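Slide 14.
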Amino acid sequence: MTKAHPVVAAALQQALVDLTDLSLQGKQAHWNIEGPGFRSLHLHLDEIIDEVRLAADDVAERMAAIEVAPDGRAATVAATSLVDPMEPGFLPTDKTARQYEERLLGSVRAHQGNPRPGGRARSPVQRPADRHCNRPGEAGLDAARSNQGSQLII
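Slide 15: predicted structure.
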């Protein structure tokens, strides 16, 4: 096996922590949304969270392959995540979608790299962000939050 350069190991560890935090914050948002478009955003967040968790798993497996022990423990995530926390409590669909999208895209920007001259690294967060954040003419979190789905009543 190839031993990782310390900079690579640190970058992968930070990506793992931030992806883990994004998945947890996504679930927090998923559980606490309310208002118009509830159902579509609730389901869309599940899709995003699944992709974020898969990305975290990919990062952890890359780390293990280069002899770096991944650390996704709750205490490590809480102490080292660079992802801004979501607001606590119930949030309206539009605010939830906006806040989560900001955190997802912020993580993409934070993890962009340039590992070789003229090269561009893909952030581990890039795939879920590409698939679920808004681009002109495409549906994303805005479409999910504007869809007038049913509200959950317990």
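Speaker note: Residues 17 and 80 are 7 Å apart (CA to CA).
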